[in-house]
Amino acid sequence: MAETKFEMPGVEVPEMMRSFAEKSVQQAKDNYTKFKSAADQATLAFEDTYTTASKGAAEFNLKALDALRTNVNAAFDYTRELLAARTLADAVELSSAHARKQFEVLSAQTRELTETAQKIATQTAEPLTASVGKNFRVQ
Questions:
Q1: In sequence order, what are the residues at sequence separation of 6 or more whose Cβ sits closer than 8 angstroms to the Cβ of residue 98?
Q2: Which of 119, 97, 117, 102 is nearest to 67 (CA)?
Q3: Average pLDDT of the chain?
Q4: CA separation, residue 50 to residues 34, 95, 117 (Å)
Q5: Cβ neighbours around 39 below 10 Å, total
Q6: Where are the domains of the chain?
Q7: For residue 65, which of 29, 19, 30, 116 has the smallest C-alpha distance?
Q8: Which of 118, 120, 138, 135 is nearest to 37 (CA)?
Q9: What is the pTM of this model?
Q10: First vs last C-alpha separation in the chain
């Protein structure tokens, strides 16, 4: 059997087609570079967010543990004083004073923990907010 060979005729690509193809390739490269840069910045923002959140959680936990220590010590002191009370009137007065003091202490602790949590939330969101604003700004 005879083998048939097909030869492509010498077709020249018009300059306009070559130029269009080169521009398309360059545009794809430029878009990739922009996308990669945005992805790198987003990764850095997530890393910053994680670091900030971790530090914030540690700070919050330390404050919560300090509040717990204060409250446990106050309970032991109250129990010791209550056991030393000589009369029922002394015990009632001691209980009232302890309740008032603990209410004030718990209010202050709650306020401090709430402020700390809000500060941490704001600081944690800052890197993401800045990154999103930077990467998705309309130009």
A1: 74, 78, 81
A2: 102
A3: 87
A4: 24, 45, 15
A5: 11
A6: 41-130
A7: 116
A8: 135
A9: 0.66
A10: 66
Contact at 8 Å (CB) between 74 and 105?
yes
Can you give the length of the chain in residues? 139
According to DSSP, residue 136 is labeled: S
Contact 41, 135 (CB under 8 A): yes
Radius of gyration of the chain from Cα atoms? 35
Alpha-carbon torsion (92, 98, 100, 106), positive or negative: negative
- How does pLDDT run across 25-78, given as a tens digit for each residue? 899 899 999 888 888 888 888 888 889 889 999 999 999 999 999 999 999 999
